Amino acid sequence: MDFQLNTSLAESYISLSQKIRIETENWVAENLYCPVCGFSHIQHYENNKPVADFFCERCASDFELKSKKSKTGSLGNKIMDGAYATMIERITSLRTPNFFFLTYAENRVNNFLLVPNAFFVPRIIEKRKPLSAAASRAGWIRCNIDITNIPESGKIFIIRNGKEISPDVVIQNYQKAVAGETQAKGWLMDVLNCIDKISDTTFSLQNIYSFVPSLKARHPDNNNIEAKIRQQLRLLRDKGFI
Fold first, then answer.
1. Most CB contacts within 10 A, which of 137, 138, 176, 178?
2. Whole-angstrom Cα distance, residue 208 to residue 21?
3. What is the pTM of this model?
């Protein structure tokens, strides 16, 4: 896998965002296999396709690419995106894409990761203030993707700190991450987030119970939070997360 971006492809463009879009999308098309099924390559959709940026012709998985310049390779806590309504419609549809996040510096990819579509839920999308009346698109509402609300198990690195991860490991990590897909959009994600907040590599049930007030606030109709936590922990154990 070649980490270098081909800057010659976008020399005729003036807009920096256009340059980066062309360079990073070309890099994905030239270098990436399908991290879902392992097929040797993925295809680029035609420009402005509303579904996604890429697809796998073997397993029909869709992927959308988000890129960010970062010398450290850090995504930060939030990633700016486009229209809020469009993003919400996309991730609540029957064909939610998986998301690629790419960071680069000095025209080289330094980190590249996959977030399965099961981990994209409306509450990780932050609604921004409408553009002012003086703006050319007055009233337009953009959004941020709040990375902090995605559990670490939902961030599957393909390149990490300038080093490629074995495709077999990537595919295995993807399969493990989506094993609890139906639960990941609710309770499973909440409990995973609680575990992520515990600094020790080992934890007790009492550690997780400390999050009961916040979980109760998130699920006010559930009157047996502790039992629900135990259920989710058993599921996470059986699926190999913990």
1. 178
2. 42
3. 0.73
Q: Is 160 exposed, middle or buried (0-12, 13-18, 19+ CB in 10 A)?
A: middle
Main-chain phi, psi angles of 91, to 5 degrees: -85, -10
Confidence of residue 238 (pLDDT cuts 50, 70, 90): low
Name the CA radius of gyration of the chain, rounded.
Answer: 19
DSSP classification of residue 217: H
Beta strands in 106-167 (DSSP E): 108-115, 125-127, 142-146, 156-160, 163-164
Residue-wise burial string across 102-112, b where 16 or more C-beta atoms lie within 10 A, e elsewhere: bbbeeeebbbb
The two three-digit tokens of residue 32, written as one number: 């990436």
Read off the amino acid at residue 116. Answer: P
84: closest CA among 136, 133, 139? Answer: 139
Residue in the structure block whose two tokens are 């998985």: 61
Q: What is the pLDDT of residues 96-153, one digit of tens each?
A: 899 999 999 999 999 999 999 888 888 789 999 999 888 888 899 999 999 888 888 8
3-state DSSP helix/strand/coil % of the chain, to nearest 5:
40, 20, 40
How many whole angstroms separate alpha carbon 81 and alpha carbon 172? 29
